[in-house]
């Protein structure tokens, strides 16, 4: 029987995988047990953010050395979903998901899948939606999740597609996952709806895109029989970028106090915080004008990550928050979602 | 007997003073009653932020037209303290402080003062400290505050001093005010201590510097006899950039609920939110590395304002937060302070 | 008989019009003689560049004080075309065009025109093209230019139109001017061609757009009978961003040596340098990849202005070059144009 | 007898070494013959530029695979000097220096050396100057250059040293090389002179610093007996950032025409263009104010590289120019230097 374990590790720079190397050397993490990595690197999060590629290369070289498998093969079976941009109080880190032997009735499960190689520019369309939906179904099956209602979160990373296509690719990956989960009906989940039909969204899909991947990569987390218990995961939609209540609710649903923040003694139980959010396209938040979308100097998503990430970090008491912009169709428009995974009390 | 009134107004761009023009035209704000303006414009907050000068010019031209007084004279008696940078969820706005007829035993008072013209580069030294201390004493007297313990907050704006001197000027203005308040002993409040002696600070001084002012400008807020009641002001130190508890405490001390945020019905009572904060020079916050101080693309203070401003805005439920970086000697090192002014319940 | 005179003036910051104030005070420039101002301010050149509005306001207040005319009226008859962004070696400056009494057969003439107020978003379409074409025809007539072949350059400034519309507005203004000049046939100069039909362009239109204008503003320069001689103007297309030969050719055609640069003794004869250029949309220049269009940290037009402006400044021996990005339909695709106005040898 | 050969290769992104891989696979470049790599990657060139580390890692992994030597050992004997930042028209590329069998009397020679590991922060002082001077002497001996007058250029890369130390490290590396070459007298080449004594400089040292190196790395190029002829190298000081004449002079001294640019037929003979330059600290160039040093949005060195790089690229007719900022003590103050290596006519 499998047991999912999460290790949240810091990095000194985007090429630094020494914390994981130490865990492997110390026998705490068997290299072969690693199923996925989700992380936050300190680039700009845009088209010319190469910190993600640098980290992926460093990670795969480490695992190649430890497992004897070729780096290219490892990159083809272990999703490495990275979001660039640690604006403000955010701290560069990565979460290593391992599958080892465990025992129990039911628990948090992981499943992964890779789509086929993507031709340049073949994103933001029906083809990407279908491709990602297939990959999500494969990942759900891989996790052994019997009921789609038991899926907590789907994390998707798609190829960037080229200049001007980044947000379309994110939207296409999202819609594909939403389709597979049944959160958006099949007749609506079509190319022309991307970035337009803001009423169509899933509150449990987190998607991004980057130049460093050439195939759609999917990680599914949810409850499945046969997996060991011990981890609690909660996801909550954020109504807007100031939705402090939703953030607290996610922590509480994951079994932690949040009044207003997680008490210091409980903070070591936090295993992962994953969030998505979006600059409100109406150009205002609760009636007050924001300036994120008209700034020529700082990218709108960098503004957004810095703001929403800080609110979540303030509740967590910890800057290691995976928060990614470009949240079209992921949670309510102008808002997003926040997920927390915590170890149950000993 | 005087009554202090605050109007918090939005701007569509840094040259937009139409909201104030309307209040004057409607007879709600007599132009002659304006004592000070504190605002947040949408520039970069740095040496080449000209949104502050643009707003000041627009404001003084409006008041010149309404009062018949020359714009230059108005600029010499009405402090206009602006902070550039509305990163993330922050919203451009300005707070107009007026003094009109009122009645009551004691209440929130305002006092202002201007220092003499400053020679280029004459900041960040003993001369600036002495100059600002004198101006603060004059402003305290102007407000009629009898006891220095009754000073809630001193807001200082000093000339930028030139390339490389901006943060020294902020520190010098802070130290001058801290000296006048007795928060730092006279023998310690010296030029060489600036930016070095992080143990020296006042939890009730908010200072900034900019190219658009040529003299030190001071606004003092505090309780004084003879001023009408009706406003409640509270200031709290922030221990670090994640100090959500301090933010809530300031709102509560100003008479508002904050559990976790100010209820919608109480939000109209918020008159002003003024904050200072600083990227932690240890390069980490609560043990986690931050990347604000090593980013070549985004200025550290822009990172900081976006993060701390978002936490405060999330509690206020409103992006109109005056938050300014460069908080050396203003609140604890790596932290800062947050002030809230609210109308008492009707 | 009229005489066109140009004064190229420096500014210490975007609110500084003191150099012009001095010329007026000294009787060198009669305030009433000013027909147009073209300048380069030190903002970011994007949607949130407020240095242009700040300069315009400062200029119109100065002229209002000197002429007794209202600032709003002056702004409605004196085009003030500003381009933000003095990247690299570029130097903030403005060129004042005056019309005074002169004598001669024929010489460089100026004509100006303003279009009607523009509804928000009404740019980048057939309506803007027609509007600007009408304004250009009016400005040509105003200058007394008899033959369209004698038009040297049309400078257009249009309203920005809102987020995402800036480049469309620039393209629409350009196409309107190209239509009026006969450089693009009427049946091709249509909304759908904007930013798409890169084969359609005029080598003598320079257009920009900004939030600080609410009407299309046009300045036409060319040769007309009845204007005094003394100035020589030349315009040359740039084939790409490295077209050093075109830059030298423009200086030479304006009567200056350029081997490789303008000799120091001739530099005072330079009256204005106006240029437009564009990041090559093929993502490469002469077969080598450039990175301007995929940079999340620096706007592509800022990259471009810094590069092309430096090449022109190196030939001029002087950083006061008006160079503006967003050159769609202005000169060859991936290139642009450069214009030089110089005083004839004494 | 050795022959120095240079290959100038493009990269599609900072992890792309495929062009070199192809040359190795095709037998054109024996992997074991590589002595040094100098390149330009598309990061921001600052403290948080990780494109350099990414490229180095990719290069060393490629060479490890091809030679069987460990990547760490290769990195300890092959200097890989990278400058981040391809602003404007600059194109990402790298120059591979190989040493193979040749024949001839005398020719362009290469020598390399590495200093000892550097303790954090141990830069910008006497220790670094001495360390780098030793490494330069070792590299000169390695090249077999008999007379210091025959050294054309010394390229130094030093550890960044930490926040605030970057420019001090560049200055220290420069001064060490200038000391070894005899271009600055020993009694002047001291820590306190760094960044202060602008009169002390060498016109043939190019230095940089970065977080991706932990030891001083040195490459020396110059004429030595026993090396094969065929390459011509010229270095010229630039008096300021607009020194177009110096740029042309360097190309001409390397045997190419430059009137005003290198003719297309001669461009394939260009093997490398290496330049250093610096924003003028007087805040003006030839009497006109520049804004590079007061811009909060774009780093001054990015401004500078975009401008000077464009002027050189316009003469070369090619964007593959290695231009690096932070040129203190490298060429005249406010200026810099430009070096060209070209193949002799067949």
Automatic annotation (TrEMBL), chains A, B, C, D:
Annotated stretches, region: RU A: 1-103
Any one Pfam family match given in the protein's UniProt record, by short name: Amido_AtzD_TrzD
HAMAP family: Cyc_amidohydrol (MF_01989)
Family per record: Belongs to the cyclic amide hydrolase (CyAH) family.
InterPro entries with a match to the protein in the record: AtzD/Barbiturase, AtzD/Barbiturase_RUA, AtzD/Barbiturase_RUB, AtzD/Barbiturase_RUC
Binding site for Mg(2+): 278, 327, 330-332, 335
Self-association and partners: Homotetramer.
Comment on protein domains: The monomer structure is formed from three repeating units (RUs) that share the same structure as one another. The monomer and the active site possess nearly threefold rotational symmetry, to the extent that the active site possesses three potential Ser-Lys catalytic dyads, but one of the 3 active site surfaces varies in composition suggesting it is involved in confering substrate specificity.
Name of this chain's protein: Cyclic amide hydrolase
Protein function: Cyclic amide hydrolase of unknown substrate specificity. Catalyzes the hydrolytic ring-opening of a cyclic amide. Does not act on cyanuric acid nor barbituric acid.
Location of region: RU C: 231-346
Enzyme class name: hydrolase
Keywords on record: Hydrolase, Magnesium, Metal-binding
Residues at the active site: 157, 208
Coiled-coil region list: none
